[in-house]
Each structure stands twice: as C-alpha cells, then as structure tokens.
Design brief:
627 residues, mainly alpha, Amino acid/polyamine transporter I, 2 domains, 25 helices, L-arginine transmembrane transporter activity, transmembrane helix, glycoprotein
Length: 627
C-alpha cells in the first residue's frame, strides 16, 4: 500500500496542465494591451534601479571599466533565455509566464518551484526599487528622513534586514498598487509616460559621457590611484585599485560583476505574464521580448561606458554614481535631469514588476496551487484584485524591512532558476509530436502503429549497440513520434545534469582545468564529449513542424548554451545566498504539500496527457489562427 501511495504521489508531482484554457477561465480579464504597451512594460521594468544605481557598485568594487563586458555577458544570458520565452509566448499565450511554461512541459512540482521563486524575485525587485526610490528622495532633502527614522525606529536585527523601517518605500508601493487596481489599460498608460521620459534622460547621459569622457579612465595605473589618494582629503572614500587598466579585477571580477549585472536585465519575462490581457499575444509577446531586450542592452552598455569614461572607476560613488559623475565633470545642474529620470525609471520599474507579480500569483491561484481566493477578478476593472492586494502587501512589507544591497544576488538566483526551467521546457517541447486529433485526424492506435513502423527498436528487438545508436542518430520518421519525444525528454534531463556538473567544475576549479591539471582536465573533457554526443542525439530527432510566429534558432545548441550560462552565473553566488533560497523554498513546499497538491485543478481532471503530448495553438484566444 505504501508503494502504491508513493507512486500516486509521484504521479501528482509530474502531472501536466494542458495548454488549452480551462472552461470559464478564458476572457475573465480584459484584452486591452497592444504591442507598444508590452514593449514599454518590458523596458520600464528593466531600466529601473539597475541602470541608475547598479553600475556604481559593480564598477567600483568588482569590474572597473570592464563593467561593459559584464553587462554584455549578463545580456547574453538574458537574450538566450529571452528567445526561449519568445517561442513559448507564441505557443502558450496565457498568464503565468515561466510558471505556465513549466507546468505544461515539465510538471506540477517544477511549475510550483518556478512560480514560487518568481514571486521571490519579484518581491525582492519591488522592495529594492522602492528602497531606491526612497533613498533618491532622501538624498534630495539632505538625508534628513533616514536620520530621523534611524533615530526614532532603530532596528537591532540581523545584517540582511534594514537599519530602520522605510515608510516612504512602503507608501510608494501602496500608491502603485492603487494604480494597478484601476485597470490594465490605465496602468499601461501611466507606465508609457514614465518609460518615455526615462529613455530621453538615458540618451542625455550617454551623449554627455561621450562628449565629456576621457579614454584615459579606461587605462588607469597604480600611479594614478596613488596620486588620487594623495590629493583626496579622505582616501578611504576611494574604492579598491585592483591592478589598473581596463579590467583591474581580472576575469573573476568581470564574471562576478556579470552575475550581479544580471539583476539589471530582469524584466523582459514580465511581458510573458500579459498573455491573458494582450490583444494579439501570439505575435506581440515574442516581438516585444526581442525589442525590449535590444533596447535595454543598448541603454546599459551606453550608460556604463559613459560613467566609466567620465569618472575613474575608484572614484565612482556607489550609491549615486550618475549625479556625482556630473559633479565631477563640472556639469552640476545636469544631475537634476538625472534625478527626474531616476524617479521615472524607478516608478515604471515598480509598477511593471508589481503588475507581473500579481499575474503570476493569479495564475498559480487559478490553478489552485496557491489559495483559491487569490484568483478573484474584479467585475468592473477585470483585474485580479486579490492577487494585486496580496502581492502588493508582501512586497510592501519586504520594502519596509529589508535592505537592497543584501538581496540583489538572491533575486538573481531565483530568476536564473526560473529562466532555466523555461529553456528546458522549450528544448523538450520542440521535439514532441502534435497530438491535436482534429488536425491530424489520427487515433491513438494509428499513432502506435506509425511508431512501431518508424522505430527499429520495436521491429528488431535483437538489435545490437550499433543499431541502437543508429536509430538514435538517424530516425526514420520525419515527424516527431512518442518514442522520439521520450528520447529527447530523457536526453534533456541528462544534459541538464551534465551541464550542472561541468559548470560547477569550471566555477570552482577553473584554475586547475586551464592549468592542465590531469584530473580536472580529464573530467572536464569527458563531460564535454558526453554533452556533445547527447546534443547530437537530440539534434537528429525530428522536430514538430507546426508553424509559429517565432521559433528559437539553432536548436538544441542555443538552449544548452543558455542553461550553461545561467548555471555558471548561479555558481558565482555565495553559500549564504543558497541557504536563503533554500529557506524560501521550504516555505513554498509547506504550502504546496499542505494545500496545492490536494486542491490542484489537475487532481480530478482524469488521466493527464503523456509526457510527449502538447498542443501548440490555442484556438480559443481571439486574434490567433490555427495553422
């Protein structure tokens, strides 16, 4: 009996949700967002606290002028994941983003972990941006607010909490929550105004840096640092000198900076949460993701280059780098332009992130993996009112008590985990057969017959190793079968495991690998050969030919590179960050096993589709067509 119970529990953990919307769930929210709204949402979230604050700390302490390379690496990771989001946006245009994509491909438990960590990332992002908003305002009034709060409400608590409660940050979150309650169209209009002003200010900063910048700041030496320290009244105000030059902290600093800079690119995935409110989701979501990532990369690259050209990296102010940079070059009044842009950027980032967090909360509650009451839709505004209030309250409390600088890496690792699940889902889904019977006009028996005819393993049971390898690398069928789909599913899981081991070796023992250590080098080469061999097996399997508005190119290589980069960045995090992530997931598992696994709508939906059964087109979504 125990074995049977364990088996039933295991089946519940991997049950999948069909892509087709459940009866009564489609059309509950208003489809009022066009492509421009989605691009503004993605750009508004991404170009927030990251572009105005993050370059200061990373440049000064981790990467120096090579921060432009750090942003390039972080952008590469985001673009690779973004392309996978774009394909899934064309396949599954529904609310929930990475959570939904994992649910229909990998299974319920992985979907819950993905959604739960997305909520963590969103909550931390909101808290960080709200704190940055408050800090910017406080600096304008001479830091009187922080001094008063620190003296009135001192918090003698662990280091990861703030020194005082930030009531202004809480107030800003509540205001944005009120805007979201008004409706999706109204909040999108406010967001477009904020984002437009932000883009204009960033353009001014980039042009100013290239006009007043000095290339010598990318070629500084230890002598320059010594002279700067001698001419400074407080040499402790200078950052570490490193070894000078363009990359004063070496490759380690560049990659550590890239892991932190990844925070700056979080935001494009918010576009994927609008599937229930976009007018033409299967076309506008992929396009908006690609365009917003391009705009954001150009902005980050330009601003970080301008900053490091204007100011020597060890003189950059970590908390307000851009205003202090304009003071340094003698353009004092320009800092007020930066302040206006900062407020607009932080406001649009805050509004967009809260929008995304509420939609993921709603999607999980609508599937009953979170409490059902969170899926309530307001009858007039057609917004998920309870999800907005709950997620806004959680984010507001986080902003009230938690410190920004201690949470960036935790946010990044949670987002990287969610991105990796999406990439795996795309890799698996592309090679699955189309089981839409109305289009293919096939019965289950016909599928089984075609598979037996196409599979040498079934027709020739005595086949040897060579025949098995030939069947894996040279399948007869030109369309995916259940057997080929299962092969890809197993190979994908094995590849993920091998890539994790390889990235751990490279992250923790790269100096041994590249120095020629026989043990590390041999293990790394063997892992690489295995990865290449399994990649070839996947590549040789037939892909689903169903037409889409966007498809990830260079499959399966691009998703595998994306997984490698994501895991490598995660390996740059400290053990303390992993412990904090583990604590958050323990809380999530308590909710899932205590509530979600019993109340899930898939509990009583009968037998679930097999692992290789997926539907690629949602015929019930207005504005889409079956191909």
């Amino acid at each position: 009996m125990r074995c049977q119970d364990l088996r039933q529990c295991g089946q519940k953990l991997v049950r999948r949700r069909p892509l087709k919307p459940r009866e009564g769930s489609e059309g509950r929210m208003s489809r009022c967002l066009n492509t421009l709204d989605l691009v503004a949402l993605g750009v508004g979230i991404t170009l927030g606290a990251g572009v105005y604050i993050l370059p200061g700390e990373v440049t000064r302490n981790k990467a120096g002028p090579a921060i432009v390379i750090s942003f390039l690496v972080a952008a590469l990771s985001s673009v690779l994941s973004g392309l996978c989001y774009a394909e899934f946006g064309a396949r599954a245009p529904g609310s929930g983003s990475a959570y939904l994509y994992s649910y229909v491909t990998v299974g319920e438990l992985c979907a819950f972990v993905t959604g739960w960590n997305l909520l963590l990332s969103y909550a931390i992002t909101i808290a960080s941006v709200a704190r940055a908003w408050s800090s910017t305002f406080d600096s304008l009034i001479g830091n009187h607010m922080s001094q008063a709060l620190r003296g009135t409400f001192p918090l003698h608590v662990p280091s990861f909490l703030a020194k005082y409660p930030d009531f202004l940050a809480l107030g800003v979150v509540l205001v944005m929550m009120g805007i979201l309650v008004l409706g999706a169209r109204e909040s999108a209009l406010v967001n477009k105004w904020f984002t437009g002003i932000n883009i204009l200010v960033l353009s001014f900063i980039v042009l100013s840096g290239f006009i007043k910048g000095d290339l010598h700041n990318w070629q500084l030496t230890e002598q320059d640092y010594t002279l700067a320290a001698a001419g400074s009244n407080d040499s402790s105000s200078l950052g570490p000198p490193g070894s000078g030059g363009f990359a004063p902290f070496g490759f380690d600093g560049i990659f550590q900076g890239a892991a932190t800079c990844f925070f700056g690119f979080v935001g494009f995935d918010a576009i994927a949460t609008t599937g229930g409110e976009a007018q033409d989701p299967q076309r506008s979501i992929p396009f908006s993701i690609v365009v917003s990532l391009l705009i954001c990369f150009l902005a980050y690259f330009g601003v970080s280059a301008a900053l490091t050209l204007m100011v020597p990296y060890y003189k950059i102010h970590p908390e307000s780098p851009l205003p202090q940079a304009f003071l340094h070059i003698g353009w004092g009044p320009a800092r007020y332009v930066v302040v206006v842009g900062t407020f607009c950027a932080l406001s649009s980032s805050l509004l967009g992130t809260m929008f995304s967090m509420s939609r993921v909360t709603y999607a999980m509650a609508d599937d009953r993996l979170l409490f059902q009451g969170l899926a309530q839709i307001h009858p007039r505004t057609r917004t998920p009112i309870m999800a907005i209030l709950a997620s806004g309250t959680l984010a507001g409390v986080t902003a009230l008590f938690l410190e920004f600088s201690n949470l960036v890496d935790l946010m990044a690792i949670g987002t990287l985990l969610a991105y990796s699940f999406v990439v795996i889902s795309v890799l698996v889904l592309r090679y699955q057969p189309d089981q839409n019977l109305s289009k293919k006009e096939k019965t289950e028996n016909e599928i089984e017959i075609s598979e037996r005819e196409a599979s040498p393993l079934e027709s020739v049971p005595e086949a040897g190793i060579s025949r098995i390898l030939k069947s894996l690398c040279d399948p007869i069928s030109t369309n995916p079968t259940r057997k080929s789909g299962q092969i890809v599913y197993g190979c994908a899981l094995l590849l993920v495991l091998l890539l994790m081991i390889l990235t751990i070796i490279l992250a923790q023992g790269s100096r041994y690998v590249f120095s020629g250590d026989p043990v590390y080098t041999t293990v790394a080469v063997l892992l690489l050969l295995l990865i290449i061999g399994i990649t070839v097996i996947i590549w040789r399997q037939p892909q689903n030919p169903s037409p889409l508005t966007f498809r990830v190119p260079i499959l399966p290589v691009l998703p595998l590179v994306s997984i490698f980069v994501n895991v490598y960045l995660m390996m740059q995090m400290t053990s303390g960050i992993w412990v904090q992530l583990g604590i958050w997931n323990v809380i999530g598992f308590a909710i899932y096993f205590g509530y979600g696994i019993q109340h899930s709508l898939e509990e009583n939906n009968g037998q679930q589709p097999p692992a290789s059964t997926f539907q690629t087109v949602d015929e019930n979504i207005p504005g889409t067509e079956s191909s």
